[in-house]
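@channel anyone free to eyeball this complex?
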Amino acid sequence: MRKAGKAGKHRRAASANIHDVARRARVSIATVSRVVNGISTVDADLAKRVWKAVEEVGYLPNTQARALVSGRSRILGLIVSEITNPFFPELVQEFENLAVAQGYEVMIGSTNYDAARTEALIRRMLQRGVDGVAVMTFGIEEAQVQQLVAHEFPLVFADAGPDLPNVRVLEVNYGEGIREAVQHLAALGHRRIAFISGPLRMRTAVTRRDAFRKSMNELGLAVPQAYVVEGDHSMERGKISMEKLLALAELPTAVICSNDMTAIGVLHALDETAYKVPTDISVVGFDDIRLAQFMLPPLTTVRMSCKELAEAAVEALRAGIEPKHPQSAQKEWPIATRLVVRRSTDFPRGSLPAVEKQKSRAARREAQAK
Amino acid sequence: MRKAGKAGKHRRAASANIHDVARRARVSIATVSRVVNGISTVDADLAKRVWKAVEEVGYLPNTQARALVSGRSRILGLIVSEITNPFFPELVQEFENLAVAQGYEVMIGSTNYDAARTEALIRRMLQRGVDGVAVMTFGIEEAQVQQLVAHEFPLVFADAGPDLPNVRVLEVNYGEGIREAVQHLAALGHRRIAFISGPLRMRTAVTRRDAFRKSMNELGLAVPQAYVVEGDHSMERGKISMEKLLALAELPTAVICSNDMTAIGVLHALDETAYKVPTDISVVGFDDIRLAQFMLPPLTTVRMSCKELAEAAVEALRAGIEPKHPQSAQKEWPIATRLVVRRSTDFPRGSLPAVEKQKSRAARREAQAK
DNA sequence: GAGTTTTGGGTAAACATTTTCTAAAAACTC
DNA sequence: GAGTTTTTAGAAAATGTTTACCCAAAACTC
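replying in thread with the prediction:
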């Protein structure tokens, strides 16, 4: 069945190519190409013959040859901070599903907050000829942005990107969710609320922290300097940050964290003390990773929907890549955030009579169970 | 600076190609190709001139053209079960680092235990012309194995693969780690030990369960039918499985889980009861994901090193791909497992006088802290 | 029914490389 | 110093597609 003159060199037994199909269907390769690409000017009978031949020889178009001649690889780059932070796999999953549904492949890379690594990653993406890149690191260094921007393909940034023609930005509305978190805690009676931020060299970390400060101000609550601790979005650092807070003379009664991994570290730090969550200290996370509801206690957190982010990212990229995409003019893509109340937040100790408290907690538990 | 006749059609501004470099260095494209690929038959002076030109025009070889003509894409496929299960991102990370260090790109896909999805994934990988595929799903359905095996490229299976010339298998020694876990529990005084398995249609799940049964037998401990519950490696199912065990008339004093996610579900189920971990029930996981040490309490678990797995997978693939790799004859690649004791296991209640127990636990905690 | 338009499919030129073949020049050999 | 071998670099073929261009035949038009 194999083509005669092929084989030759010691090379992988190539699978069927367009010529094999053409020969079998007794048409030219141009016709095969047209049929496979769904170009409608082909006679129905011929098309049927071609499809039959495609089936018979098990033809899969060679993407490399396709990319070479068409100038489009149908690969989307996806850059994340840390693939091992559970938020990102969830995002990757959604992104990939959507991209594949649109006929794209995804090339994933994580920066691990390392400049050299990021540069190499970008170079690899350029070399593989990606059609566009989504930078979902929530902040990236200027030098690397330049490296990316210099090439002409479409870019999507989560949360912070330069204002340039082929750049689209997913505008995450942090204010919303963080305000809800602060108000939720304040409503429970908390006055001393601390915040553990992300690494402040990331713009998003600053944005989230400022959103916290703003919401506190709105309610007339003070934020002492020592109540804002810099973390780095890792569990390890979350733990250390909480230990810093625990060393203060006047402890906060609640802690809001810049992401869920930090919150997990905080829970861990508190587990090593006599303080209980939420009885003694309430904890709020950010992201709502799937794990959040499996923490002990299940984590109250601000949800930033992966699905929503992924949908916006893929569409925004397509808007940049595909010549006549309906939303090609849209530069800013809004993303909502909102509080999800679980069991890591409660009244601060002593704010209500014990009986009352017991009752309310039970009631909330019940509500939660549904 | 741009080549004259180019531009033409409405196409992305192409970056410099081999002709640009050749013109600038006043050599032929063959020479440029040779220099860039490190073929040593080029005069040192010429090579220097070529590298200079490469720098100046910012030449990046086009991987698609390369792949097209050489028949090798330098892409490795990596198939995992669920990218959202934290074990896999850790594996992906290690795998990617190693692959990139060897000049390969990685194409990742997760099956989500879905046959249609898996088939589509394999098709995509074939079409992109991967040089080899590592199937790290710890069990895959026969039909899909056939689909993969039919093509001639190298394959690596974790834990269960067909015995074929171009297939290499990472043989995970489950017996080892699981025996350590059972012995650890037995040494603490546990006699009633339950096991929550993975989905039994996966061969690895059966293997792990059988390893558990065998280790129990060796110690003369009975394993009632009801003490072996089928899970599916998810937190949700882990929780449900534990609830099943809690409904039994005679409760086990310890539970070993087929992976860490299941163990997290178990911890969660127990948190909703009056039973404490490890005081009332000890829990052991499997995998040792990074999160395990951040659980409350930190999880005793059997470590299956991602790094070791990734190293073996990449090397085994290279052994299949690269003509003269030193280990090209090696078909089985052993992977060790071993118990990591943390704080989710302890003496069963009542097995020792309270004072004694208190003391030992404190001692262990201390040992742990280091 | 001859001229004109439409339809549909084939030919061949790209695309950016690697690699084989060839040939010139340089370095030996006796 | 003529013949032989080695070294080195260029010319050109090949890789599997898409697509612009062209031309034959069919379908209209009057």
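from a first look: The first strand of chain A starts at residue 75 and ends at 80.
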